[in-house]
Design brief:
Elements (H helix, E strand, L loop, with lengths): L15 E6 L3 H7 L6 E5 L9 H14 L9 E5 L7 H9 L6 E4 L5 H18 L7 E4 L23 E3 L3 H7 L13 H17 L2 E4 L8 H14 L3 E4 L5 H7 L4 H16 L6 E3 L2 E3 L1 H17 L2
Parallel strand pairs: 1-2, 1-8, 2-3, 3-4, 4-5, 6-7, 7-8
Antiparallel strand pairs: 9-10
Helix pairs in contact: 9-10
The structure holds coenzyme A and magnesium ion.
Coenzyme A (COA) binds next to strand 1 and helix 1.
Length: 306
């Protein structure tokens, strides 16, 4: 597919995004205090089909109650139904009026789906008097068989694209897999590949790579390990399904004191030696990639300072 490449708009990165089934009053009430950087009001898989219309209206009410003055640092996102179903436009025609910060699009096939959603949002923002271009898009970019072949093609598809994420459940069902795990409990290579391609695809597109959920919400240790591994690989945030997961995720994606101190040292060292491209520090060679990583860490610290 070819299209004119459009740079993404600036976007505040998020560490933790908590899914909240939008038809649950109790869960909606708990979202704000969860400490999540974003809530994902869900209209898709966590809502029974008989409750979808109620969920749309509850999501809209919630968005309106927490309009832009009352959101503070917590962004409000909405996961809509896939574009291949009539539900997608029905969802959008209700929730755009609440000016969500971002729409999560599940079961995408390629960047063409993001472009289609961009056009829908262009029209609906105009109809609802919502600031034009203000609603961002995050695709769940690995949930269909086709999607695995298109992860490197998102660069420049829409100024609204702000992040990319992946899921291991729907793609397993689509491929006909009886499980997505190996006998030792780790993801099978197919899903590790999807995870890596999503990471590289997001970075290639200049947007935030966001790691998938840890569904066993009673297993805090497993979550912590998974979150730390994700961050080490390059993911900069992770989705959650239970409020108890948020603190662990926020901690894993916030640079530690040790990392901060090291990064400050690296930046200061290069600043005080502008003539040097490579320097030794505490027995380690440093050059441009290390400086870049240190600057990235300090920028994150600034963003998440509360
Ligand atoms: N958001 C906000 N609040 C939540 C929550 C969530 N995702 N998950 C649980 N809570 C609330 C519960 O309502 C409960 O509060 P209450 O007693 O005031 O009702 C409290 O936290 C403790 O919940 P707990 O009993 O431990 O969990 P549960 O059995 O009620 O729910 C799940 C378990 C998995 C059904 C629930 O966590 C959930 O709905 N998660 C999101 C699922 C989802 O959106 N999936 C789609 C993406 S994969
Ligand atoms: Mg799903």
């Amino acid at each position: 597919m070819s299209f004119t490449k459009i740079a993404p708009m600036p976007f505040s990165p998020v560490r933790s995004m908590l899914f909240v089934p939008a038809d649950s009053e109790r869960k909606l009430a708990k979202g704000e205090a969860s400490g999540a950087d974003a809530l994902i009001l869900d209209l898709e898989d966590s809502v029974a089909p008989s409750r979808t219309q109620v969920a749309r209206e509850m999501a809209l009410d919630y968005l309106r109650q927490r309009n832009s003055d009352k959101r503070g640092r917590q962004q409000l996102w909405v996961r809509i139904n896939p574009l291949s179903t009539p539900g997608a436009l029905q969802d959008l025609s209700v929730i755009v009026a609440g000016a969500p910060d971002c729409v999560m699009l599940p079961k995408v096939k390629s960047a063409a789906d993001v472009i289609q959603l961009t056009h829908y949002l262009d029209a609906l923002e105009a109809r609802e008097g919502v600031a034009l271009g203000s609603i961002r898009i995050i695709p769940v970019a690995t949930e269909t068989a086709q999607s695995l072949f298109t992860l490197g093609t998102y660069e420049g598809c829409s100024a609204r694209l702000c992040a990319m994420t992946w899921g291991a459940e729907d793609i397993a069902a689509e491929l006909g897999a009886s499980t997505n795990r190996r006998p030792d409990g780790e993801y099978d290579s197919v899903y590790e590949m999807a995870r890596t391609l999503c990471l590289a695809g997001a970075v290639a597109a200049g947007v935030q790579p966001i790691d998938t959920i840890w569904s066993n919400f009673g297993d805090e240790e497993g979550l912590q390990r998974d979150a730390v591994t994700g961050r080490q690989r390059g993911f900069t945030g992770k989705m959650a399904i239970h409020p108890n997961q948020v603190a662990t995720i926020n901690a894993a994606f916030t640079p530690s004191e040790e990392e901060q101190a090291w990064s400050r040292k690296v930046v200061e060292l290069f600043a005080s030696h502008p003539e040097m491209g490579t320097i030794g520090l505490e027995g380690k060679m440093l050059d441009m990639p290390h400086l870049k990583q240190a600057q990235r860490v300090l920028a994150l610290v600034k963003r998440f300072a509360s």
